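Reply to dn_fold:

You asked what the input looked like. This is it:
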Amino acid sequence: MSGDCGMKIDIHKEVEIESTIRTELLSSMFEVPAKTKLSVSLSGDLPLDDRPWNIGLIVGPSGSGKTLLLNNLFGGSELLYWEHKSVIDDFAADHSMEDIARVCQSVGFNTIPSYLRPYSVLSNGERFRVEVARRLLSPINPICVDEFTSVVDRQVAQFGCHAIQKYIRGCEHKQFIAASCHYDIINWLQPDWILEPGNPCRFTWRSLQPRPSITVSVSRVKYETWQLFKDFHYMSADLNRAARCYGLFVETSQLDAGLETSAANSRVYSFPDRGSDNAGNGSGLRLPRSSVLPLRDSDSSVVLRQNDECEDSGSGSAGTNAEFFTRIKSEAISSILSTDASTTKSTVHESIPNQQISMVPISRRSDPAYRIAAMCGVLHRPHPKVSDICGFTRMVTLPDFQGLGLAFVLACTVASAYKALGKRLHSYPNHPAWIRSYQRSGLWMQVKDSGSYSPRRGSTSTVGGFGNKRCAVFQYLGPTMNRAEAERLINGN
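and this is what came back:
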């Protein structure tokens, strides 16, 4: 290649073959023609100066020359060293704790206890996310990552790509280039250009497109489900036995196929809102069906699309022990949590019409592959003057699903159900990322800032005040769920 990031790719590499007994034997066994040198050539055009870009992807089979392109054209990946007993201490000393927490949260590395662990004991998924987080804070531009998503399960890879691209596009003048052999990340990473190695190489500009949708299910779950989540909560592993527990499940078969399920013969209803590791196959995180409380023999579904419409996904006979669930077009989910280059903060707040959510009955798909992703608990909150306040006591998302805003979807769904029954639902976030998410949403009103305690404790008070944490307080003001559906969700009958 001529020049720094020039317009032409012209790479030729040769390596001499040493003649040994084994190389000669290999040649005779597999009838490999005897050669003294092996060579590889890559050529083509690289018109990166033609338009502005944030994310590039070099993709192709193993051995096709991706690393060669990355190293010769862009300088290759920065080598990272992990020497401390907690990964947060491996970040550069000139980065503040706030900067580190923000970038870790942005790429889906949200399990606070994992911040305190050494790199060597993290899961592959957590290693992948924290490595990317360190690189994103590097002053090097463009940021290059080789073997991108190669060591993580494909679902973790897809969700991680979505979280990473949101962060990159929110940074001014930040550029990111990944080299990967996996084509399934394209719709999630949303690269501005794709380069496929060859002679000649194939270069393609790509426009920003909607990523695949995510189908989720919300239902009552048993208290014992907390055992799956307790190690991932950032404050405490305890959950009050009086809490009513709710879980959000993700239909992973839809993600594995990489396709969006469409609704046949659907009717359209208006929808008011545009809001927001473990490695391996995750079988250890799959919630047994017996631990989900049965609900009535009918389902309800809502699909959130980019045009803020809600569509009925058909009708039919429902199976026994059917769950109350909600289909979410996650492009609308993520707009609650963050804004990209095409969405401003004012749009998120001001474009929410004051209407009700429409819930419509549908039949459940035959044996969908649901995995539990997030869980919350709700308690009655005592108050000296009113008796209609309930509040979240725990809200946790498993590491495999972090970075998509699923916990916020669970919070809004459960809150809309409680509002339908005349209850005010409060949330008490202490995590800075959670507080920012609520503040950006038009569905929640902040009633108390973090750092202050209210109500003031009297001499006879026995209330500890949320573990003596000075939490912010937010009240749900969003749409109200249909009362019948709300009763089924909350009571689990």
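The longest strand covers residues 370-380.
Hope that clears it up.
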